[in-house]
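Team,

Forwarding the record for the chain on the shared tracking sheet. I've put the sequence and predicted structure together so nobody has to dig through attachments.
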Amino acid sequence: MSATAKELFDSPYGAAPFSKIKTSDYLPLIEGEIENTRKEIEHITSNPMPPDFSNTVEALEFSGEYLDRLSSMFFNINSAETNTEIQQLAQKISPLLTEFSNDIRLNEVLFRRVEAVYSQRNNLNLSPEQHTLLEKQYKSFARNGAALDEDDKKKLRKIDSELSSLSLKFGENVLAETNKFELQITDSEQLSGIPEGAVEAAKNLAESRDKEGWIFTLDYPSFIPFMTYANNRQLRKKMLLASGSKAFHNDDLDNQNTVLKIARLRSERAQLLGYKTHAHYVLEERMAGSPERVDEFLNELLQKAKPAALREFEKLQQFASQQDGISQLQKWDGAYYTEKLKQKLFDLDDEKLKPYFKLENVVQGVFTIAHKLYDLNFEEINDIDKYHEEVRTYKVTDSNGRYIALFYADFFPRPGKRNGAWMTSYKSQAVKNGREERPHISIVCNFTRPTKTKPSLLTFNEVTTLFHEFGHALHGMLADTVYPSLSGTSVYWDFVELPSQVLENWCYEKEALKLFAKHYQTGEDLPMKYIEKIKKSSNFMEGIQTLRQLSFGLLDMSWHAKDPSFISDVKKHEDEVFSATNLYPETPQTCMSTAFSHIFQGGYSSGYYSYKWAEVLDADAFELFKEKGIFNKEVANSFKNNVLSKGGTENPVILYERFRGQQPKPDALLKRAGLI
């Protein structure tokens, strides 16, 4: 490949040039950009002028632009459209980037220049954003080993390199396990209860694999309807155990040792840097501040949620017993009887709702809501590159026609795509050399595919997932900062879920549902009775749901807030942690940790609690919208100007109080959840 990264990005809007880069090009391109960035760093360190904010802090902030952009392209493809070649390449590229990142953070001369500026910070007349950038930069050196001696720096490099390879391996194993399993059904009686759309999708999948009958997989759009509706209890058990035992089979794809190694290396790294545990290290840069505060937060919610969860579980057990003589509810019964009981109590069935949630209508609905709140317009365009033909691309403008962002949306599961849903950025918003650079934002989901006879019809859960990821996207798109590392979602991790979770609230509001919940065949609005039922059922089994989320947060902290060197048995450790939150009998064949990608592959280590933390913020924030009107421009502008556009430019506590006029109170969440 002869073109440079800069030349490749000379495209419409400077968009990611997916079609111009072959898989084999990524390594040489990234190596080239590492060298270019190294020269930029050398230019800073060899500057004969005394260090100041411009020649050191800003120069460092704007270095490595194309390295960042290439890396974000490559790693999103590794998550959304991977194959063996890309995975093998990731095992080479990831350690290279880790090593280079360490070269910067452990560069003594660079650190001394940043430190010199930091020591004069109170005399420099800096803006709040400049002050935050300086503080963040100084800490990124101080917290990552810049002050270590040479031997310890070597140890740190070795740990970081191992961690980057292990976390990639973890994710590859989970994806391989997900793809490996299939449940083939050839007897149509075994399909009893499963919705027609899911059955048709299973038939299509079997045909595409040249197999008889129907095939169900562990991909969410296949797995969830099966677990929720299949009357065959033995097959539900088979699916649940397959899903719950991913990377827990003592074979080549087993993650038990990987989990132990990651936890121990993280702990070793934290201690090397002077912290008691990995959680102490991570939480120093979070709203929560310390593991003790997180424990207090999780246990306070556990106290409030557990009595409700036990009552709900008892009710579910009685219902299953009356319905089918089930004397002991098992994990593979939970979703099935919860749905049955919900149908009985609220006469509300996801399958009755799905015809009103055609994907295209829901997408248009979330666009309309973004327009009503924040004056954004979305125009589908086809003149920029995509990494897969199914990706949809949009130009985002404001009501004055000003270009705001590019938006990519990738909605359906594929063999090369990991499960779940996430938002990512291909280009950060910033102001460089007086010129504003607008962001390129993407969301990736795994929704029910269209079939030969039906469009993509979403479950209500998928609707809220789309709103959630779009909330993250708004945080990225509406960024209005100077520095890329403080832009969009570059905020404290326990603040990052506020914009995503707050937007989910609109899914439950009549005024919002009227905009997009229309029957895909008749165009009829979602009947009022269903809207009332959605509202009424919104906190159905909330105690059990809260307990489940708390169990994940507690498991995360158990791996990271204590010394993990005493843990030798992953499953035994997990069982001990879950004993406080377990409702169902234990299943020895399953293990959560070996597929807990959020904390062992994603960025949520010591941070899973942040979903609940952000729920407190989102419930409190939405109270204000409800008081003034869910499309109230004054409140929307305040949320946009104080939260969405500000990124990580100031402490989130300050930003939130500026919007809300007060500190967040948990009462709104507990009330919404029906726990008080």
